[in-house]
Amino acid sequence: MLHIDIPTLEEFKALAQIKGDTCVSLYLPTSPLAGNIRANRIAFRDLAREALAQLSEAGADRRKIAVFEGRFDHLAGLEHDVQDEEDKIRKLQRAKPDPFDTFWHYQAHGLAVLSTPGLMRMFRLPDAPKPLAEVADRLHLTPLIRAMTSPHDIFVLALAEESVRLIHAFVNFPPVRLQIPDLPGNAEQATRRPSFHVRAPRGRLQNLEGEKVLLHKYVRKVEQAIHGVFAGLNTPLVVAAEEPVASMYRSLNSYPGLADEMIEGNPDQKTDAELEDAAIPILDRLYSREVKAAIALYDQLKPRRATTDVSYAAHAATAGAIEQLLVDLDAVVPGLVSDVDGSVIYSASDDAETYSVVDEVARRALSTGARVLGARQEELPDRAPLTAILRYDFGLIQP
After folding, report:
1. What is the C-alpha separation between 16 and 82, in angstroms, rounded?
2. Which of 13, 162, 384, 398 would you call most buried, defined as having the most Cβ atoms within 10 angstroms of its Cβ?
3. Is there a contact between 200 and 206 (Cβ–Cβ < 8 Å)?
4. Which top-level group of life is the source organism from (predicted)?
5. Is residue 30's pLDDT more than 80?
């Protein structure tokens, strides 16, 4: 089974604010197949050992190293890797259920483990990152930025009178049907009317008009039940429904991520996989239109309120002046960005003392509420590594 943990914006902001402490960032590709659980754990263990070696070489406090080592050993499950069979049996008899055992059974294609002496966060990622063990004064967040700024998933609300499903659809992954508390099974259950289509009086409501009111009540209960699922998210939502149900839901919806496009026809006649197949092209079109709209806005606002200059964008991101940012996360622009004013010192090569300036601009833009989108280099104006739309005329003279 696949499980993905893409951080919310608030989670990302909290991680991005961690500076000055001993930070360990571990990224590795994983397999969601049950037969590869042990291989995933071994790969993590090897990366963790590499990070511990870096801590020792850097002269880190031994107590801090011990904290990291114990935490990583527990996550890797080293206490279960026992050669003696009798000892293994005794340990299993004494052992309490380990939540990390369940964690390793539900993986995606990548894993991020981010740790300081006081916390550890894990994110299962839809893309496979390059193996990385980094020790620094801040967390390495580039793979998380990639996960947050690329179109990976979309919700599908399959809404019919006879049934309702909320499906989480993924690019290249099987769909997941979500279990929602208080979600009515169908219109009859929501309205407590056993024969929903019988044209019989019900109080003052009768015939077609009465049925529409009851149907509206059903759709409202559906919207109320699923509303909490979308809290803190910007994942698109597409509705699969027939009229008049589709229009009713659209009039009641309060989630800004609802797509204008919809999946037409009776969703009861489509499997979860078929709905996913119909939703992914809609996701691609939504993302493509958003990128094109940002580029068109850049053409209108340049040069005062839009830029493709990395140094100018770094100043603006540090000041919280970026509204939208298109970024090529594959671009390699090594250097350092001042925490004070965003001044950039470029480096001839990427080494342990530098980081990607483009990634740092994206991190600061996300942390100040900008909408950040990943794009291919050939899509960006002048084939620049980034395109920034500013909230206001920032005031610096662009090169």
Report:
1. 38
2. 384
3. yes
4. Bacteria
5. yes
